[in-house]
Amino acid sequence: MKFPLHILHLEDDPNDAALIQSTLETAGITCAISCVQTRGTFVAALERGGIGLVLSDYSLPAFDGLSAVEIVRTRWPDLPVILVSGTLGEERAIDALKSGATDYVLKNHLTRLAPAVRRALQEVEDRATRRRLEAQFIEAQKMEVIGQLASGVAHDFNNILAVIMGYSDLMLQDFGPTEPLRKPIEEIRHASERAAGLTRQLLVFSRKQTVQPVVLNLNDVVQDLHRMLRRLVDENIALTLVLGNDTGRIKADAGYIGQVLMNLVVNARDAMPNGGKLSIATSNVTLDETYVRTHAGATAGDYVLLSVSDTGTGLTTEVQARLFEAFFTTKAKGKGTGLGLATCQTIVQQSGGHIGVYSELGKGTTFKVYFPRVEQPLDVAASAVPTGPLPRGTETLLVVEDERSVRHLAREVLVAQGYEVLSAANGQDALQVAREHRGAPIRLVVTDVIMPLMGGKVMAEWLQATYPDLKVLFTSGYTDDAIAQHGVLDPGVAFLPKPYTPASLARKVRATLDDESDTAFLRKQRAATRPGAGAAATVPLPTAKPPTR
């Protein structure tokens, strides 16, 4: 309960009012009491707001307690009302409680007043807590539904996007800068990237995609994204970086940190349609207990702060209260999904951090993102995306994919890079293809994880039992938690998420072939999972085993 407690007291006797205030303060309840005597002054005081409790006499010359209860229950249903009267009999007390009074106290038994006040305030707090928990439960249910929906459509949707993006890239390779069709194809490619990004946002927001954190320097992430961020904002927006010296290290997923930053920058851009200033800053900060008490979800400790500030239109208090709510947006219909900031909050929370906002109408907005500082050494930085000609090869590959269009795309891309490519529609067909193959040894299998009849993991077990040096590159459009149970996200396992581009496929295949480390995740389990033992023994297989070499 908050003190001082602001009480509206409907009472016509100044002596009784003073006695009641003295009784409460003697009992340790610090209060500020406003006394009124008429209906008009009573309602006016309530409309001004800030009242935490109503005390009312039962009978007054110009008003009465039951009418006061009715007014409060009609317009301020959560506000407690305690009747304090010297004339209240048992029958009237019951009527008052039926009318909605929280409690009643007789003036000649004021020792009950302080306990009644504390009980009433506790009930208010309990109801607020219950509503908050109910809202959280409803939100959790909504997220579960979103997660199930996202999981259900991710596989098929990512397969479709892989085909759109893949063939767009292949066509762009054949069209020069002046080709009339180049611009429409670029627009198709751009739209498919936006669709893929929206799918990722849904999966991250519904917590159906696993964040894989590494120890990194936040300044490096911001600097790497600077050029791309510059392209996101209009020319009439001045973008500046103010990166702190010796900022600490954080443990987070660099890709998702980039997504947070891009979402915040896009929001800032949209808030400055006529131009303005956009600043991205980093610094070391420490959050103390005082900050934590006034910011829900924050934890005291040392942090690295990422702030994004704009000089745009600003946000109202009402908008700020709903800012991170799923599907809430102030943008025009068709201009925003309402997932951007909700996704940012989810990513930051998964990194153990906290995000807050400060804004004033007409003066701009600042988002502050706090990532916990860690003392661990930096992980090996991910190499930049390669450019230039795609790597080539002459090895024999086996592509296993149940989606026909994706299978044809992958085969076309790899054949164009010089590989001999075999293909199969599922794990059973792949074993048959491998058994009948009489050419150069198959060096690498590019396989989807989840397929009908036989999935990629079981197929890989059987093939590697016969070909111990065979390498496997898994691909999937399912969510991370759906494929994690198949073991393909374990460290050291070669994995390429869908939707992939021709370039990413070609480079990942070459990197997997050239990797001298043991990327076959089944080697360490071969003794336990060899064909014919355990669960693998129940999998239907071709009548003949693959030939030994």
Describe this structure in words.
The strands form three sheets. Strands 6, 7, 8, 9, 10, 11 and 12 form a seven-stranded mixed beta sheet that branches. This protein is an alpha/beta fold. It is elongated, with a radius of gyration of 33 Å. A hairpin with a 3-residue loop joins β11 (354-360) and β12. The protein is built from 17 helices and 17 strands. It has four domains: 5-126, Response regulator (Rossmann fold, 3-Layer(aba) Sandwich), CATH 3.40.50.2300; 134-205, Helix Hairpins (Orthogonal Bundle), CATH 1.10.287; 214-374, Heat Shock Protein 90 (2-Layer Sandwich); 396-538, Response regulator (Rossmann fold, 3-Layer(aba) Sandwich), CATH 3.40.50.
Overall outline:
elongated
Overall number of domains: 4
Please name the fourth-level CATH homologous superfamily of the largest domain: Histidine kinase-like ATPase, C-terminal domain
Helical/strand content category: alpha/beta
* Main sheet record: 7 strands, mixed
Global mean pLDDT: 82
Write the CATH fold name of the largest domain: Heat Shock Protein 90
Helix percent band? 40-55%
Overall CATH class of the largest domain: Alpha Beta
Assign the CATH architecture of the largest domain: 2-Layer Sandwich
Please, how many helices? 17
Per DSSP E runs of 2 or more residues, the count of β-strands stands at 17
Our estimate of the beta-strand percent is 15-25%
State the end-to-end CA separation: 78 Å
